[in-house]
Amino acid sequence: MNLESTTVTVEKTQQEVFEFLTKVENFEQLMPESKQKFEKINDARFLFQLKGMPEIVLEQKDQTAYNKVVLGAASEKLPFTLTADIVDIGDKKCTTQLLFKGEFNAMVGMMIKNPIQNFINTLSENISKL
Predict the structure, then answer these.
(1) Domains within the chain, CATH numbers bracketed
(2) Tens of pLDDT along 52-64?
(3) Which residues contact 117 (CB under 8 A, 6 or more apart)?
(4) Would you call 84 helix, strand, or coil by DSSP?
(5) pLDDT, mean over the chain
(6) Residues with Cβ < 8 Å from 103, sequence gap 6 or more?
(7) Residue 10: closest CA among 97, 118, 108
(8) Angle 84-38-128 from CA coordinates, rounded to 5°
(9) pLDDT tens per residue, range 18-36
(10) Across the strands, what pairs with 84?
(11) Is pLDDT above 90 for 104?
């Protein structure tokens, strides 16, 4: 399953957005209002839970200076990645888009598609407000 957020313009430099997204504790600020739990585990991992959803542990998997930050599920039960693509557009602004890639069976995919799409759209909207 591949899902994309809308591309948002951020009134920050590409470097500022990259540095914000590489600090896992900052993701608490981006979470939807339905967040029930957020806990930094270490500098590369955090746990969160949204209302009606199980706890999920995300960890930093990869990063490319100022362009890309890749988070992934720490559990093999729900294998997915969440990638933030950050593009400099000049004038101390950048665009950011979130890309979700997951491997789920068809039934699970149907159940989680809309909640995941809403989740990444909310994260993206909140990034635009930085």
Answers:
(1) 2-128 (3.30.530.20)
(2) 888 999 999 999 9
(3) 3
(4) strand
(5) 95
(6) 1, 79, 80
(7) 97
(8) 35
(9) 999 999 999 999 999 999 9
(10) 69, 98
(11) no
